[in-house]
Amino acid sequence: MTPPKVPAADATLRLLTFLASRRSPVAAVRLAEELDLPRSRTYDLLATLVEHGYVMHLGEERLYGLGPAAHELSGAYLRQEPLARIGRRVIEAMVDEIGESGHLAVLHGRDVLYVVEERARNRPSLVTDVGVRLSAHLTASGRAILAELPPAQLRALFGHQGDFTSRTEAPGPETPRALRELLAGVRADGIAHESGAVTDELGSVAAVVRDHTGWPAAAVALTFVEARVDDELRERLDAAVRLAADEITRRLLGRRSGHPSTEPSALQ
């Protein structure tokens, strides 16, 4: 049974998520338009968030941005590491079984933030260390999470050409339409892939972790040298991240993805 949605809470969280995705403060009118909210309600929400310090109002410019309380909340999450505590042993078991480096990442604005990083023995160094942020549309972890977001939130994060960046010469989504088409495939497969978009010659696969409401809370990923991976190993990698994501979802009391997974093994 789907939990009932609380409209005020939903609107407030979407508003904060949109502000977190922007590189600079924005006008209230744009917030209302992007989030499809009545202007009066948008101003009421902003006033309450300003009062509690989660939003700052730049009066002379008539713009709004995240306030100090929002940054403190982000810092508190990193200090407590509840998701990392739950997921670390699952990631370690997955890496031991598969022999490739694994990660657990969460969405942070338009980026993914890595909260668990487990390096496999005799595998190359990676940029995805704990605390590192990378643009979500380039990473397998980010694509796994973005594929499960509501359309309005995806538009808020990646609705304009300027929202897209690149790290390598590997092709990746460069427009909102291209990203939507890529994510449609991710939703159909239940697995996200990335090939050379983060680091040349390296690829990744990822699966989404859900919380008790079914929300995409994080993603589990494995990264590997593309030249070493054949079709059989690719299937094992896909199955491993799906199984690990389902196990972390279970430990979060979340709803599973509904995609078939392999039999439980060392990840249990």
Which features would summarize this protein structure in a list?
Tscrpt_reg_IclR_C; 43% helix; 2 domains; HTH_MetabolicPath_Reg; transcription; transcription regulation; Arc Repressor Mutant, subunit A; two-stranded antiparallel ribbon; 268 residues; alpha+beta; 19% strand
Note the topology.
Elements: H1 7-21, H2 28-35, H3 39-51, E1 55-58, E2 63-66, H4 68-80, H5 82-98, E3 101-108, E4 111-118, E5 133-135, H6 140-146, H7 151-157, H8 176-189, E6 192-195, E7 202-210, E8 216-225, H9 231-251
Antiparallel strand pairs: 1-2, 3-4, 3-8, 4-5, 6-7, 7-8
Helix pairs in contact: 2-3, 5-9
Structure characterization notes:
The protein has 268 residues and is α+β, with helices and mostly antiparallel strands. The protein folds into 2 domains: 7-73, Arc Repressor Mutant, subunit A, CATH 1.10.10; 81-251, GAF domain (Beta-Lactamase, 2-Layer Sandwich), CATH 3.30.450.40. Helices cover 43% and strands 19% of the residues. The protein has 9 helices and 8 strands. Helix 2 (28-35) packs across helix 3. The protein is globular. It comes from Brachybacterium tyrofermentans. Keywords: DNA-binding, Transcription, Transcription regulation. Residues 69-254 form the IclR-ED domain. This is IclR family transcriptional regulator.
